[in-house]
Amino acid sequence: MVTSRDVARLAGVSQSTVSYVMSGRRSISPETRRRVEEAIETLGFQPNAGARALASQRSQVIGLVVPFAPGADMTGVLPFIETITKCAREEDHNVILATEDEGAEGLTRLSDQSLCDAIVLMEVGSKDPRIPVAAGLSVPVILIGVPDDPAGLYCVDLDYTLAGRMAVDELADSAHDRVVLLGYPRDVLARDVNFVRRFLRGAEDAAAAAAHGIAYAEVSPPDTSRAGAEAALDEALAELGPDGSRLGLVVPDPQLIQPTLQSLLDRGLVPGRDLSVIGLCTDRTAETSTPPVTNLSLEPRDVSRRAMRILFRLLNRESVPTTSTVELVTPRLTLRQTSLPAR
Amino acid sequence: MVTSRDVARLAGVSQSTVSYVMSGRRSISPETRRRVEEAIETLGFQPNAGARALASQRSQVIGLVVPFAPGADMTGVLPFIETITKCAREEDHNVILATEDEGAEGLTRLSDQSLCDAIVLMEVGSKDPRIPVAAGLSVPVILIGVPDDPAGLYCVDLDYTLAGRMAVDELADSAHDRVVLLGYPRDVLARDVNFVRRFLRGAEDAAAAAAHGIAYAEVSPPDTSRAGAEAALDEALAELGPDGSRLGLVVPDPQLIQPTLQSLLDRGLVPGRDLSVIGLCTDRTAETSTPPVTNLSLEPRDVSRRAMRILFRLLNRESVPTTSTVELVTPRLTLRQTSLPAR
DNA sequence: TTGTAAGCGTTATCAC
DNA sequence: GTGATAACGCTTACAA
């Protein structure tokens, strides 16, 4: 292993000079800088992370707590992981992973062992038991998701309330007379992630808005399997409107979208011809569904980037927007093949 | 921050005794152990990771290099990340993430900065430029994937050659008389991941086997989009066999499966009724495709677990199977709705 | 502009 | 069975 002492010896300077050349925390004469950088280059010196962390009290690591809970939407988390990792690297930081099933201890471990300088907590529940713990840690914590009580922590998330509203509004505006929301399955409800109720509230609010006067109902599939979708659809389609009535289905669970589309096709109901379907999912998921589903985007990359922006401002002791602790990203509606043509 | 010195003071022992109680590397009297453990408990002591790493030359961290390259199969990597992270935690290790786009420097960084004790390298290419670098690092590297020259590194992967063979054999055994392989799209080919050619070789070998005498062809879609699938199918279906002939489609790219199924349905061809489709993907993907596709499983969890088992044997200086440096996992065939019924 | 030296919080080698 | 104490490799006052 090559250390900064080796570099110092080769460059004919003191060890601290090497350190200062690397950190830029004091001015160095051009000549010295050149010699040191040359020595670093020829020796291939890389500073020891542990030693650096110990001395500087900064690990240059971001802790990322991901939801690997059974039933969690797998396809959805990857863009978050990817974007967060890349943002971290841009600021010369690394990312260490922890899984949701470690619970609150996972957080204290990351923080108290000085494994990281800040934590990003994904998919927080409404009354997530980790929130009070997170608020008491010695490292800043950014939440992706909005708990009932953010406890002063910064939160970034999609504006699910707006998403719910947009879904219903879109259907109402395009002359649908009935909206059925295929809710989240039981296991998602059990995890009590906050976005569920936010989305539902948005949808309900929009449906209740006087201007529309649209029929609105919610059904809950038992799970995201084909059978779950079937059961939900049985209920949703039970009382079909009069011939020529326009039905819109809203499917907020990405995992339920494809099974729902398939069940509809199996029944001879073609989305985009016989009824409308609006999904809440990433554009990627929407593009590759069969048929491509009109969707409200989840914008995982945008959400992640904003979270990391706040995080690094916090770490660099820069000013952080103090107006609100909650930052919401506006979803984007993209019409695809599952929307009924205008009447 | 509470240190082992604080614990030692409270327990009335020396700092080294605290260390030995935690590591169990020397015998401690029951009474001393009790007092120390009590002190740890009341103070909530957590050892500083950086200091520990510095002193012990062990970071207790596993580096995981994931393929976030554009075009990489997103859904596929998550089970790997999850399984690897959990295996690491079981052995009291953490996981630090690096992305493929960091290239070989990413590896040297992880190793030379002593950020981790071992590296897992996912989705290695046939002539991956990172392999020679990996072989020269001071930490062990486990490959997921099999390069042309493993350079003595341990590799774990699905047996893609066997998978290719199994796909064609299954179709041949179920009285199909024509097999078309919808190959990997250009961007996957460009990445030159080794499994592509292994799968193709397996399929070709099986097709060539005298016993079958089955017509075999390969077509390459430009990409995994709907349009890509369309183009590939145009070619694949160009010369349709005589009426009543049994065609089998093999689709090794998970991302191409759904677009292909959709394109077939659009043409009025129902998989499982008019032709067979066999996909190479995780069971989860197969279950939720429309219709559920007969598949050969990618077994990401099994592959990951085996990789981690080798890794920790290496770290613990236990004996490692020396017979071969390459460990291949057998894919599993599951018949679903896209297989033609027996004639 | 540069050097000296005191930590940072562990681990592990001696000694007893 | 336990206690001093010297590393581990870096950062950062404090001097010069």
Automatic annotation (TrEMBL), chains A, B:
<feature type="domain" description="HTH cro/C1-type">
    <location>
        <begin position="3"/>
        <end position="46"/>
    </location>
</feature>
<dbReference type="Pfam" id="PF13377">
    <property type="entry name" value="Peripla_BP_3"/>
</dbReference>
<dbReference type="InterPro" id="IPR046335">
    <property type="entry name" value="LacI/GalR-like_sensor"/>
</dbReference>
<keyword id="KW-0238">DNA-binding</keyword>
<dbReference type="InterPro" id="IPR010982">
    <property type="entry name" value="Lambda_DNA-bd_dom_sf"/>
</dbReference>
<dbReference type="InterPro" id="IPR001387">
    <property type="entry name" value="Cro/C1-type_HTH"/>
</dbReference>
<dbReference type="InterPro" id="IPR000843">
    <property type="entry name" value="HTH_LacI"/>
</dbReference>
<feature type="domain" description="HTH lacI-type">
    <location>
        <begin position="2"/>
        <end position="56"/>
    </location>
</feature>
<dbReference type="GO" id="GO:0003677">
    <property type="term" value="F:DNA binding"/>
</dbReference>
<protein>
    <submittedName>
        <fullName>LacI family DNA-binding transcriptional regulator</fullName>
    </submittedName>
</protein>
<keyword id="KW-0804">Transcription</keyword>
<keyword id="KW-0805">Transcription regulation</keyword>
<dbReference type="Pfam" id="PF00356">
    <property type="entry name" value="LacI"/>
</dbReference>
<dbReference type="InterPro" id="IPR028082">
    <property type="entry name" value="Peripla_BP_I"/>
</dbReference>
